[in-house]
Write a structure and sequence with these properties.
This protein has four helices and five strands. It is an alpha+beta fold and 189 residues long. It starts with a helix and ends with a helix.
Length: 189
């Protein structure tokens, strides 16, 4: 016996679901009325949001019709795919390495994403790529997703953090970052 569609797709519409989930009010992170919000910070997001010009490298991509979820917005999986595609294609073109067939490969060890505004198909987007930290075997990137048609000075739609750890392609043990990658990363500094 299958659950009614509202229980599968409609979220916590059943009273028992709401009670178990104990969903907080949606405005938990919003400051109280009249509270001062520091410059460069959204009233709904506690971290300062980056601007387009804070990223030295941008890659333009097009959203696809299959990227939209049933609510008509780009799904979280599609958003992560945009970030990953922009970062990997830039790394490969800037370093001259085919990271799929190299002896040391990047493994995505950690990600996070903060959504600021909705996006849906069809859109041209720009992914800003920034370097947050460079170690011996790992790199932390800060990524921003922007709508191209909004022009210069446009607001960020989503901000992501990607942590890549380089590993030996065979043993999967941590390995030093290839020199070609380090040279390419200098463009982000």
């Amino acid at each position: 016996m299958s659950a009614p569609p509202s229980r599968i797709y409609g979220g916590p519409s059943h009273p028992a679901d709401r009670a178990v989930l104990q969903l907080p009010p949606s405005d938990d992170v919003t400051p109280p009325p009249g509270a001062e919000v520091p410059a460069g910070q959204s009233s709904q997001y506690p971290c300062p949001l980056p601007e387009h010009n804070e990223f030295r490298v941008h890659r333009c991509l097009t959203t696809r019709s299959c990227d939209d979820d049933r609510t008509g917005h780009i799904s979280i999986v599609a958003c992560y795919s945009l970030f990953d595609t922009a970062l990997t294609s830039w790394l490969m073109s800037s370093s001259g390495l085919d990271l799929r067939n190299h002896v040391r490969i990047p493994v995505l060890a950690e990600t996070s994403c903060q959504f600021v505004a909705p996006l849906s198909f069809p859109e041209m987007v720009s992914v800003g790529i920034g370097l947050a930290r460079l170690g011996q075997t790992s790199v932390v990137y800060r990524l921003g997703l922007f709508r191209v048609e909004d022009g210069p000075g446009r607001g960020v739609l989503a901000v992501a953090r990607f942590v890549q750890v380089y590993v030996d392609a065979i043993t999967r043990k941590p390995a030093t970052i290839p020199h070609e990658i380090i040279r390419a990363l200098q463009e982000l500094a």
